[in-house]
Amino acid sequence: MLSGNSHNMDTPNVQIFTMPQLSELLAINKLSLIQVVRAHGDPDITWAATSELADPTPHLDGGELLLTTGLGTLGWNDEWSGFAASLARAGVPAIGFGTGLTYAQVPVGLQEAARAEGLAVIEVPRQTPFIAIGRALAELLAQTERTALADALAVQRDLTRSISLGPNQVIDRLARILGGSAAVLDADNGIIIASGPALPAETTEQLGRIRALGLRGATADLNSTHSLIVQPLGLSGTPGRYLAVAAPGPWSPAQRSAITTAVAILSLDAERATDRRVLVRRVTAGIVALVLGGQPGAAATLFPIISATSALPPRLRVLRCVPSGDADELIRIIERDNPTGSIASEVEGQVVVLAAIDRAEAIAQELVSAGALVGMGSGVPVADAAAGDASARAALSHSGQNRMLVRFDEIATTGVQAALGADAGLAFANATLAPILAQSSEREMLLMTARVFLDNNGARQPTSVQLGVHRNTLFSRVNRLEQLLGRSLDDPQCRADLWVALQTAHA
Q1: What pTM does this model have?
Q2: Whether domain 34-127 has CATH 3.20.20
Q3: How much is the average pLDDT of 235-248?
Q4: Ramachandran assignment for 277, one of left (phi > 0), alpha (psi -120 to 50 degrees), beta (any other)
């Protein structure tokens, strides 16, 4: 059961009728109308139609008060039953029979036939012209329209005021105005906001029917138990949210106006949410790029934009994922985990996740459940995320349908070459080291310099001491390595690639 939200403003009292009722017409004294047969209830009257045909139904839409003097019915006896039955099938709720012309009073046969069909019969005295009834009904219709317009304006004002308190209040007001249920759903029929009783079971079916139509989709269902409308929210792009409303009985004009107003208000709110989501995705992509690029400090300054409750974890695992379908589904899984500091972004067709150490395993299992192939990197300090990413890539290369999650820690115990695979490792080493290996006179010196430099994590002073060379000589050798590799050895990704290549080549 969906619960409503508390509120402080009074909700307008929305009239539920849409047309004048027969009792209102009978209450106009100057018409001198007399009801001789009562209908079941108090029927709505859409218009007044005058006809002397034996069968006027081809010219009627339903809902009319049929005015006749019975000119074409002289001599009828049993024919009244068929006449009343055809009017009932056409949706005519009442007959206005003019007396003092063709008949002195309403024929008994008509009264009996109408009673059997549930039709109302009113006597129109000779001094009351049919046109006067038409004019009176037109005024009642105009009054009803004025009332409906006033109701519509009232609910529009109420809903517009409520948006200042947030979309939850809009949904709460709407449910009260409709006397039913109102909810904002996501594309998978998940409830984002709701008020009132549970929505009908067929809401899921209706949402599925219109989802592929984007913003052009909308659906309405009216049956004996309720009215249901499902409509997308948003101004452009693919809808991520939908408004679903349900209530007993048909909608009144004011209620339809309330639904239209709510769609407009909530679409603007959804657009703001979409803009925010796009911003968050872009900032997250920037954070991931900065972290993998060895700039966690710069990334940390951006983190408050996407999360007020967490920050980058000091140690993390990188997960590399190949989605089975839409990468956005995997990113949404990580976004739900955001309070722990885990974030994700799409990179070159894969989803890269920076996961807090204590959440990495659970996140990986969720991603596998969503059909993704996952490579889990080693746990590393955030400053060494590039090395963690390299290990995640290596793990992912060993994944497949028979082994959807591969952890680098499980394959790294036999060395880098085993982790990469013999062929892939050798090809990677040869490609990475090729410019160095081509320098026959410098090759051994440059390879040794590279190994010692990496062993000392890029620190120049201990490297020069261990190699037994002047720091200017080391500076020259590092420059030479960077020229040949075409990359800076200050780049953690470059150091990680060079380290893997040297380990593989040495093995």
Answers
A1: 0.40
A2: no
A3: 83
A4: alpha
